[in-house]
Every structure is written in structure tokens, then in C-alpha cells.
Amino acid sequence: MEGPIPERPIDREGGLRQFEELLSTLGHDLRSPLSAVHLNIEAALRRLPPGAASGNEIRASLQRAREIVKQTVGLIEGLLREARERETPEIERRRVGPDEVAVVQLREAIHDCVSLHSAALQRAGCSVTVSCDAAIRGRWSPASIHQILSNLVINATKYAPGKPIDLIATRAAGIVVLAVADHGPGFSAEEQQRVFERFQQEPRPGERDGFGLGLWIVRRAVDRLKGTIRLISAPGEGATFVIELPADE
Questions:
Q1: What is the pTM of this model?
Q2: Domain topology for 102-246
Q3: What sign does the dihedral 66-153-193-231 (CA atoms) show?
Q4: How far apart are CA 189 and CA 182, in angstroms?
């Protein structure tokens, strides 16, 4: 009788390279149809009759769809940049250049994010409370700020459906502290050790499928802004992601 078949060793590095190649290919292939969707949304907005109540509702929906397409394209470009930086020698990497930087009004960015994901928040049954002074701002990459906010909000809808989400921002001594808190099941100490790693997803009841990239993208975005991120959590006590960013103006 034959013995057990030996297990084949897992080539994690090879798997990562294959995934990055696939991601790069998909990124290039997706930008064209997304651009076409964006152009069609713009055309539909131009054809809407002004003033009609129904037209205003349709216009608002189309404008949200346009923003979603725009931010999706930005996410794809960010992932492509990550793949390119992993493959590019340091001297060439500097030529890629950093993200565009502008003065970002944080409260406005938070409200834009909540509005953009209003359908997902409603579907998940999550209310949102925002506490952020209008004067809080900084010179940051708007794309990176959006990546941070969007991924943390969507993460909360996945892991804590039906629970409120709190977004709180303060500023002191040139540092902006942003906290995104849910009231879900929380993370164990073991889970917290790997939560920011790529392709990591902690199985939860009712969780949607995904690649486990969201919190890794958040950490990379925070790194690009020269900030820090930490997770405060315990089983049964929810999760609070605390981000500290330099607030140079």
C-alpha cells in the first residue's frame, strides 16, 4: 500500500509575484472600460433636464457613480504604483514621483467619503458619527487620504454590520490624530499581529469575499504620508484604528 502523498511546499513569494503580475494586468485592462464609464456618466449628466425633481435625484446618483469611478481609477493607479515600486531599482523609483499633495480639509474629506459610501453604509445598517473641527487640515495626498478613509469605513461595514461607526479627528502640536472606531466583535491579540499584512482576512460570520488588501492599502497610504497607524481592540470591544499624520500646511 502506498504511503501518504507528501505535501508540496508553498511558494509564497512565487504566489505573490504571480498575483502582482495579475494585478498589474488587470489594472491596465480595467482603466480603459472605467474611463468609458466615466465618459458615459458625463454625457448622461449633460443630457439631464435642469430643475426637474426626478432629474435632480438621477443627477445626484450619477454624480456619486462618477466619484466612485474616479476613486476606483485612483485605487488601481495606487496598486500599480506599489507593484512598480517593488520591481523598479531605487534610482528609477525616484523618477516615479510622489503622489500629488494639496491642502486637504479633513472634515470635508470625511463627509465626502461618507456620502460616497452611503449606499454601502445603508445596506450594512451602519450609522456614522463625525467629530472633526473644520479648521483641521494638512498638506497631504488627497488620493492617500481617500484610500485611508474609504478602506477603514468599508472595513467597519464588513466586520461590524448593524453597528455605528465613529470618525473622530483632533489636532495638537502639528499632529492630526484620526480615529475610526466600530462597535463590532473586535480582534484578538493574535489577529492584531497580522491585520495589516497583505492578503490577510480574518473570517467573520456574513463577511463578503475579498482579497484581504484593504488594511494593507491603508498602512501603505499612511506610510506614504509619513504617518503612523495602530489598532486598539479586544474581543467583544470593537476596533479603533488610530492614525497620526504630520499636519504641515
A1: 0.67
A2: Heat Shock Protein 90 (3.30.565)
A3: positive
A4: 17
Q: What are phi and psi of 163, to 5 degrees?
A: -110, 150
CATH architecture of 12-96: Orthogonal Bundle (1.10)
- Tell me the C-alpha distance between 230 and 152, whole Å: 12
Q: Which three cell numbers stand for residue 33?
A: 472600460
What's the CA gap between 224 and 54, in Å, rounded? 42
| Domain chopping of the chain, boundaries | 12-96, 102-246
Which helix H or strand E contains 60, and what residues bound it? helix 53-87
- 205-249 pLDDT, tens digit each: 444 444 456 788 889 889 999 999 999 999 999 999 999 999 876
User: Which residues pair with residue 229 across a beta bridge?
Assistant: 243
Q: Are 124 and 157 in contact (CB under 8 A)?
A: yes
Nearest to 244 by CA among 156, 169, 189: 169
Cβ atoms 232, 239 nearer than 8 A: yes
